[in-house]
Amino acid sequence: MGEHLRISRRTVLKGLGTAIALPMLEAMAPVVSIAGQVRKAPPLRMAFIYIPNGIHMPTWTPGALGSKFVLPETLEPLKPVQDDLLVLSGLTLDKARAHGDGPGDHARAMTAFLTGRQPRKTHGADIRAGVSADQVAAEHVGKLTRFPSLELGCDRGLNSGNCDSGYSCAYSANISWRADSSPMAMEVNPRLVFERLFGNDHLGETNASRAKRDRYQLSVLDFVMEDALRLKTKLGTPDQRKLDEYLTGVRELEVRINRADAPAAKAPGTITRPPGMPADYREHVRLLCDLLVLAYQGDLTRVATFVFANDGSNRPYPFLGVPDGHHDLSHHRGMKDKQAKLQKINHFHISQLAYLLQKMQAIREAEGNLLGNSMVVYGSGISDGNAHNHDDLPILLAGGGRGKIKGGRHIRYPKETPLTNLYLGMLDRMGVPVKSFGDSTGRLESLS
Questions:
Q1: Phi and psi for 56 in degrees, rounded to 5?
Q2: What is the pLDDT of residue 265?
Q3: Could you say which of 3.30.470.20, 2.70.70.10, 1.20.1530.20, 3.40.720.10 is the CATH number of the domain covering 44-188+278-448?
Q4: d(CA 114, CA 96)
Q5: Which of 105, 103, 106 is nearest to 157 (CA)?
Q6: Cβ of 216: how many Cβ atoms within 10 Å?
Q7: Rounded Cα distance, 367 and 42, in Å
Q8: What pTM was computed for the model?
Q9: I want to staple 13 with a disulfide (CB 3.0 to 4.6 A). Which of 20, 180, 305, 440 is the partner?
């Protein structure tokens, strides 16, 4: 029966306050014809992942160029996805430099990273940056999905006040900008992200569903099971298996979020953790990674940003044996012990990226996989945190771009090549007609 069924890519499983989008199934209507053969065309996604305070570059940069490079120590966790990885050396974020504005490199780096524009130095209400690359893409492709874009982060920040040498906290706490003076606030609570992705658009129903789940220890799947069973009877065996795997993933993630939600014993005077906020930073990052994958898998969005930590973050990493603050360590002054600790933090962040990319790689889509149908940028707006330099940035591009990017290479670009040239090439691949972006000087070559 499944071989005759055709269902829309927009099909969702519905229940009280619940709307669960489906992964791409064989039964979904074919949308392209190539050489007389009808094929299914998965959507192309893009993501931008940001890390703060620069990198210990000696253990980041491969020694060889081209396809023969060996991953250095910091990048070693990416070995399973090396064929889908480009290491891009030599790129510059000029608008993160002072240009007469004095200190404030962290605020400038985070804001300019996706805008290619220098933020106005102010800690008042007259903030001004520029539209970010993700929002340029969202403006064009966002109408095709339930959420035009998704903004995730592990650090919530303020949108007012002085956070970095005269720069507003808005610059230090936002990477995505919808307009010059309108940052897109990050969602840091996995519980709220989950509810947003799998709730419907009726607030009253969503609240009622959540209350009922809490009261009777139910899952969101309990509200759509009747719909799911009805659909499964019409699907072929491969699609039934794929649907089961997807719903199992939703349920397992829900269980982990609930576990993070469990009240913890608190010493007198400690601050109460908001519901849904994990105490363990490692689990926090991975929950948000998993939510991002599910959002892509269900085509809930095609554009996302994910900030592992705000620039200037002084988060300690005691689980790595690094009780020191990250920002303090980045000002290492050439001290080997501080550099070693900094490298441990860099390695940990790369391990989380590897987790995300391998999860995407494991999800089959048509004749490829989710990673092959994505473009994922990972990097920082600062190179060496001690020097606060913004040239030769640590930048990775992962994913096949739906056949439009050739991975497995280390490429070095000429000095002062704008980072925004990369974004211009990515926007081209997303079908977004933009002649220039930020301080771009042209399309980045050699990606294909």
A1: -80, 95
A2: 42
A3: 3.40.720.10
A4: 11
A5: 106
A6: 8
A7: 9
A8: 0.94
A9: 20
Angle between helices 133-141 and 420-429 (to 10 degrees): 10
Question: Which residues does residue 182 pair with via DSSP β-bridges, in sequence order?
Answer: 179
pLDDT tens for each residue of 195-247? 999 998 787 777 788 788 888 888 999 999 999 999 999 899 999 999 999 99
Reading the block at residue 253, the tokens are 């993630």
Name the nearest CA neighbour of 407 among 446, 358, 354.
446
Return mean pLDDT, the chain: 92
pLDDT digits (tens, 9 = 90+) for 356-376: 999 999 999 988 999 999 999
Query: Where in the chain are the domains?
Result: 1-41+191-276, 44-188+278-448
Tokens 């005759």 correspond to 4
Candidates 318, 249, 330; CA nearest to 290 is: 249
